[in-house]
């Protein structure tokens, strides 16, 4: 019994030492996240990628942040005598954007200090962990394009539907110039706001165009109707309603109301995650509509699926290095051996998350509409 007590005491001292050492290794250079509500000090992030939270909930007993290391159940916050719950993630987070929410006494709430983004089929809090390569999606002093909301008629759904359209810098001045179009889809749980809000697609394009790295083109984002099937039942998803909206309603509207080059050779479709699945199915169903295909953490193509390789100008496959990079690389090689222009891209040190997809768009854009 005495030996057990002694060993328990030694273990406790060792555990305390480890915790103190870990705490001491965290740099105290925390700053408010760039995705905070105006004037809000928390949440904060440091140069190592740790996130720190502070929530005022004096009448609550428990506050936990869903953000945390995988499989650890998030970050549990500790309450002080003034009613503030505080805590720091157990380890550094992946660079880039992350959704999160609070669990307060068993209920789900957003962080009042953070901006909200539509993901996980709800408006979630969002946090930006500083990325070493964030310059490519930063707001810079360069000519900017315009992002506008449009409402287009949809007979198939008996309503007006919404889309966001990015037009490149100079669109409103060069009124004789026509532009190719990329139809860019969100993932499950998200909507048509995702690519411009979470993805910074407009800033990525502005910066690439300013640097002369890509041909200017229009980007269109619309709701892919993906959230109408529950997670885990994706095999029940039917592409038919969305394909009808996209091909028969949205594309004709965009071609009629924007200065597009309205042909297959100047039209691309790409999507992240489930939006990639939609891209895969629709491009195979309607190769007469799109010449450029992009799957961003959204599966792969194989050469047997491509019935006429002469109408496909590019297949772009990407994912994060923490996903399944070998599958993406192998698929691209197989397509190339079959005589199809295919490119793979792997985002280093990222998983199924927006930095993967931001980087993927940066790589994809310069390849589009070059032939």
UniProtKB/TrEMBL annotation:
The keyword Hydrolase applies. Keywords: Hydrolase, Signal. Gene3D superfamilies: alpha/beta hydrolase, Immunoglobulins. Residues 1-21 form the signal peptide. GO terms for molecular function: hydrolase activity. Transmembrane segments: none annotated. It comes from the Bacteria. SUPFAM superfamilies: alpha/beta-Hydrolases, E set domains. InterPro entries: AB_hydrolase_fold, Esterase-like, Ig-like_fold, Ig_E-set, Mycobacterial_A85_antigen. PANTHER family: DIACYLGLYCEROL ACYLTRANSFERASE_MYCOLYLTRANSFERASE AG85A (PTHR48098:SF1), ENTEROCHELIN ESTERASE-RELATED (PTHR48098). This is Alpha/beta hydrolase-fold protein.
């Amino acid at each position: 019994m005495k030996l057990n007590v002694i060993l328990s005491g030694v273990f406790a001292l060792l555990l305390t030492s480890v915790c103190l050492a870990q705490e001491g290794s965290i740099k105290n250079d925390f700053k408010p996240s760039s995705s905070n509500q105006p004037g809000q000090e928390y949440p904060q992030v440091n140069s190592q990628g740790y996130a720190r939270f502070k929530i005022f909930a004096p009448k609550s007993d428990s506050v936990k942040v869903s953000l945390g290391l995988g499989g650890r159940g998030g970050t549990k916050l500790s309450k002080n005598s003034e009613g503030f719950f505080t805590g720091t993630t157990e380890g550094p987070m992946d660079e880039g954007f992350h959704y999160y929410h609070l669990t307060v006494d068993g209920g789900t709430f957003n962080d009042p200090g953070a901006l909200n983004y539509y993901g996980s089929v709800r408006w979630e809090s969002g946090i930006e962990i500083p990325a070493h390569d964030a310059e490519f999606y930063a707001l810079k002093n360069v000519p900017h394009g315009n992002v506008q909301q449009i409402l287009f008629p949809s007979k198939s759904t008996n309503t007006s539907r919404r889309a966001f359209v990015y037009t490149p810098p100079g669109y409103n001045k060069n009124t004789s110039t026509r532009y190719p179009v990329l139809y860019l889809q969100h993932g499950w749980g998200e909507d048509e706001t995702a690519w411009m809000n979470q993805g910074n697609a407009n800033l990525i394009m502005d910066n690439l165009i300013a640097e002369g790295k890509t041909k200017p083109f229009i980007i269109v984002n619309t709701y892919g109707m993906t959230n109408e099937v529950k997670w885990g039942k994706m095999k029940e998803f039917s592409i038919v309603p969305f394909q009808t909206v996209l091909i028969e309603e949205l594309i004709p509207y965009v071609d009629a109301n924007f200065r597009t080059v309205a042909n297959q050779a100047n039209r691309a479709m790409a999507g992240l995650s489930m939006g990639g699945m939609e891209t895969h199915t629709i491009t195979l169903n309607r190769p007469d509509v799109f010449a450029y295909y992009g799957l961003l953490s959204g599966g792969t193509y194989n050469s047997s699926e491509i019935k006429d390789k002469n109408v496909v100008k590019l297949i772009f496959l990407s994912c994060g290095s923490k996903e399944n990079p070998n599958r993406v690389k192998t698929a691209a090689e197989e397509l190339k051996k079959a005589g199809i222009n295919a490119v793979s891209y792997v985002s280093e040190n990222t998983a199924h998350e927006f930095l993967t997809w931001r980087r993927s768009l940066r790589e994809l854009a310069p390849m589009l509409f070059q032939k």
